[in-house]
From TrEMBL:
<dbReference type="InterPro" id="IPR052156">
    <property type="entry name" value="BCAA_Transport_ATP-bd_LivF"/>
</dbReference>
<dbReference type="Pfam" id="PF00005">
    <property type="entry name" value="ABC_tran"/>
</dbReference>
<keyword id="KW-0029">Amino-acid transport</keyword>
<comment type="similarity">
    <text>Belongs to the ABC transporter superfamily.</text>
</comment>
<dbReference type="InterPro" id="IPR003439">
    <property type="entry name" value="ABC_transporter-like_ATP-bd"/>
</dbReference>
<dbReference type="InterPro" id="IPR027417">
    <property type="entry name" value="P-loop_NTPase"/>
</dbReference>
<keyword id="KW-0813">Transport</keyword>
<feature type="domain" description="ABC transporter">
    <location>
        <begin position="17"/>
        <end position="53"/>
    </location>
</feature>
<protein>
    <recommendedName>
        <fullName>ABC transporter domain-containing protein</fullName>
    </recommendedName>
</protein>
Amino acid sequence: MLKISNLNVYYGESHILRNVDLSVPSGQMICLIGRNGVGKSTLLKTIMGLLKTPQWYY
């Protein structure tokens, strides 16, 4: 199971993802769609650990 609650991600001082909540039950799949620039790649990079959330969220 994947569960994300209140995720916030920044590039420098730019607030890219704001309070994202996502829950994917075991054995399920989701599709993440949206127009350019809405944070799809940022979300995936954060889930994979390539981008870090601010220190105060640990």
